[in-house]
C-alpha cells in the first residue's frame, strides 16, 4: 500500500520538475538573456512566449511582398528585410531579436563582422538545421568541415577551372540557339530566371558530376521541392523532437531525401562503371571524382582516419553542390540581366568591351574573360545591389567576446549582407544607384571599408565555388552580349524577395533582339 501511495507523489514531483524546466526554457532563460544583453547596451524587440519574433518577421515580409517596387528602384532592403530595417532604425546597428527561444544578435558593425568571420573560428560556426538531411560542406562544422574542404579544394584550382570552360560554352551555346529559334518564330520575350536555372543546372551537372541536365533533371526537381521545405523549416520555430514526428511535412521530407539519395547513387554508380570499363582507376578531377577517389583510398586502407569521405558524405556533398552550384549563379545572372535591361548605356559599354576582346563569333575562353574588366565591374555591382544570399548566420557554441560585448553560448549571430551592401555610410550617397564604376579600382577600394563587400562571405568559410561562379557568369554574359541586345519587358514586375535566396518574385521577363 505504501508503494501505491508513493507512485502519484513521485509522478507529481517529476511532472513539476519537468514543467519547471519548460518554464525556464521558454520564459525565464530568454528574459534573463535579454537583461544580459540590455546591460551591455544591446536593445531589441521584446521576447514573445515560445515563438519569439518569428511571427513578426513573417508578417512584415508578407505585407511587403504584396507591394512591388518602382522599376528602377534599387533600395530593396525595406522590402526584402523589412523586420531588420525596422528594428535597426528603432534599436540601432546591433540589436537582438528572438527566433523561438533563441536570441539572435544582428551585427552590422564591420569590425565585429570581421571578428565573427575571421577570428572566431572554433567559437562560432554554422547553425545545424536537419531539414536538408546530412550536412554538406556549407553546413559542416569543425574538423569535418576542414577535412571536406581540403578534399574538395583541388577541384577549384585555376587550371581545373580553365578546363571547365568548354563545357560552360557548350551549354550556353545550346541555350542561345533556342533563344534564336524563339525570336525567329516571333516570340522574343523570355523569363531569364527560368532559363538560367536550366542552364546552370546543366553546367553543374557536366562540370561537377560528369553527367548532363537531362540526366540530373529529376534530381534538380526533387531538390527544388526540398529547398521549399527547408525554407519553411528555417522560418518556423524549432520545437525539440518535432522533426522526428511522422507529420505530413516530415514524411514528405523523408521521401524526398530517400529518392534524392537513390538518384545520386545512380550518378555515382554510373561513374564507377565508367572507370571499371576503362580500367583506368582514375575517377577524374571533377568534384565527384575527387570524392570517389578519397572513398576508394579509404576502402583500400590508404588513408588515415578522418581524411576520407564515406558514401553518405559524398551524397550529402553532391546535394550541396547541386543546389549551391546552380541557384547562386542563376540568380546572379538574372539580376545582372535585369540591371542591364534597365541601364542600356552600361549594356552597350559591356557589349563594346566583349566585342573588342572576344570578337563577334569567337567563344570566350579562360584568358579572354580575364580581360573583361567592365563585365567584371557590372557583375560585382549586381552582387552588391542584389546579393543571392541576403544574410549570413552563425551560432556561438561557447561563451565568447565580440568586441566589447560578451556573447553567451547558444546565441545566434546574423550578418545582414544586404543591409551592409546598401549602407550609405560605407558606399556613399549613390548607394542605391547602379554604378559599376565604383568597382573600377577593385573590390577593396570600392567602399569605405575593405570588407564591406561580401556576397560570397569572407574568412576561412568563404564560398569554395566563388571563382567558378564568377568565371561561369562572365562567360555566359559575354556570349549573350555577343549575340543579343535586350530591354525589360512591359510584363516585368520589380519585386525582389527572399525565398532562401534573393529571387524575382514574379520572374524576370526581358525582350530579346538579335544583334
Automatic annotation (TrEMBL):
Which SUPFAM superfamilies does the UniProt entry name for this protein? Cytochrome P450 (SSF48264)
Q: Which family does it belong to?
A: Belongs to the cytochrome P450 family.
* GO biological processes: paclitaxel biosynthetic process
What PANTHER family has UniProt attached to this entry? CYTOCHROME P450 FAMILY MEMBER, CYTOCHROME P450-RELATED
Record Pfam families: p450 (PF00067)
Subcellular compartments = Membrane
Q: In which pathway does it act?
A: Alkaloid biosynthesis; taxol biosynthesis
Q: Which cofactor does it need?
A: heme
Specify the superkingdom: Eukaryota
The record's section on InterPro entries has: Cyt_P450 (IPR001128), Cyt_P450_E_grp-I (IPR002401), Cyt_P450_sf (IPR036396), Cytochrome_P450_Monooxygen (IPR050665)
Predominant cellular place of this UniProt entry's protein: membrane
Q: Which residues cross the membrane?
A: 6-27
This protein's GO CC annotations: membrane
Q: Where does heme bind?
A: 463
Q: What is this protein called?
A: CYP866A20
Gene Ontology molecular function: heme binding; iron ion binding; monooxygenase activity; oxidoreductase activity, acting on paired donors, with incorporation or reduction of molecular oxygen
Assigned keywords, A-Z: Heme, Iron, Membrane, Metal-binding, Monooxygenase, Oxidoreductase, Taxol biosynthesis, Transmembrane, Transmembrane helix
Amino acid at each position: 500500500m505504501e508503494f501505491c501511495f508513493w507512485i502519484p507523489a513521485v509522478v507529481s514531483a517529476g511532472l513539476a520538475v519537468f514543467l519547471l524546466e519548460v518554464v525556464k526554457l521558454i520564459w525565464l532563460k530568454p528574459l534573463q538573456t535579454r537583461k544580459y544583453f540590455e546591460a551591455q547596451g544591446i536593445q531589441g524587440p521584446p521576447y514573445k512566449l515560445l515563438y519569439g519574433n518569428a511571427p513578426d518577421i513573417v508578417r512584415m515580409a508578407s505585407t511587403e511582398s504584396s507591394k512591388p517596387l518602382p522599376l528602377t528602384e534599387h533600395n530593396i532592403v525595406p522590402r526584402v528585410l523589412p523586420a531588420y530595417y525596422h528594428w535597426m532604425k528603432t534599436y540601432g546597428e546591433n540589436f537582438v531579436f528572438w527566433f523561438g527561444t533563441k536570441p539572435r544578435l544582428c551585427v552590422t558593425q564591420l569590425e565585429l563582422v570581421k571578428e565573427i568571420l575571421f577570428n572566431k573560428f572554433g567559437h562560432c560556426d554554422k547553425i545545424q538545421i536537419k531539414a536538408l538531411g546530412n550536412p554538406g560542406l556549407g553546413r559542416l562544422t569543425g574538423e569535418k568541415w576542414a577535412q571536406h574542404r581540403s578534399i574538395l579544394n583541388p577541384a577549384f584550382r585555376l587550371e581545373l577551372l580553365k578546363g571547365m570552360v568548354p563545357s560552360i560554352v557548350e551549354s550556353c551555346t545550346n541555350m542561345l540557339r533556342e533563344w534564336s529559334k524563339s525570336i525567329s518564330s516571333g516570340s522574343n520575350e523570355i523569363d531569364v530566371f527560368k532559363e538560367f536555372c536550366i542552364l546552370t543546372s546543366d553546367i553543374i551537372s557536366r562540370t561537377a558530376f560528369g553527367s548532363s541536365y537531362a540526366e540530373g533533371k529529376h534530381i534538380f526537381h526533387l531538390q527544388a521541392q526540398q529547398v521549399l521545405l527547408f525554407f519553411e523549416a528555417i522560418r518556423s520555430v524549432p520545437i525539440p523532437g518535432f522533426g522526428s514526428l511522422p507529420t505530413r511535412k516530415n514524411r514528405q521530407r523523408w521521401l524526398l531525401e530517400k529518392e534524392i539519395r537513390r538518384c545520386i547513387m545512380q550518378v555515382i554508380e554510373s561513374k564507377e562503371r565508367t572507370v571499371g570499363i576503362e580500367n583506368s582507376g582514375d575517377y577524374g578531377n571533377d568534384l565527384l571524382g575527387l570524392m570517389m577517389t578519397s572513398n576508394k583510398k579509404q576502402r583500400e586502407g590508404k588513408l588515415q582516419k578522418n581524411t576520407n569521405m564515406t558514401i553518405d558524405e559524398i551524397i550529402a556533398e553532391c546535394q550541396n553542390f547541386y543546389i549551391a552550384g546552380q541557384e547562386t549563379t542563376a540568380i546572379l545572372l538574372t539580376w545582372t540581366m535585369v540591371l542591364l535591361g534597365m541601364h542600356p548605356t552600361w549594356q552597350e559599354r559591356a557589349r563594346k568591351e566583349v566585342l573588342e576582346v572576344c570578337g563577334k563569333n569567337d567563344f570566350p575562353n579562360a584568358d579572354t574573360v580575364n580581360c573583361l574588366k567592365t563585365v567584371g565591374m557590372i557583375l560585382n555591382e549586381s552582387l552588391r545591389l542584389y546579393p543571392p544570399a541576403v544574410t549570413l548566420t552563425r551560432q556561438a557554441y561557447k561563451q565568447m567576446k565580440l568586441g566589447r560585448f560578451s556573447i553567451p553560448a547558444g546565441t545566434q549571430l546574423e550578418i545582414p549582407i544586404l543591409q551592409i551592401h546598401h549602407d550609405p555610410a560605407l558606399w556613399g550617397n549613390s548607394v542605391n544607384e547602379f554604378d559599376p564604376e565604383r568597382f573600377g579600382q577593385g573590390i577593396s577600394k570600392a567602399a569605405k571599408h575593405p570588407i564591406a563587400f561580401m556576397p560570397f562571405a569572407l574568412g576561412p568559410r568563404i564560398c569554395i565555388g566563388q571563382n567558378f561562379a564568377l568565371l561561369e557568369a562572365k562567360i555566359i554574359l559575354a556570349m549573350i552580349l555577343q549575340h543579343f541586345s535586350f530591354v525589360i519587358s512591359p510584363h516585368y514586375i520589380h519585386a525582389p524577395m527572399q525565398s532562401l535566396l534573393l529571387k524575382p518574385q514574379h520572374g524576370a521577363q526581358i525582350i530579346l533582339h538579335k544583334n
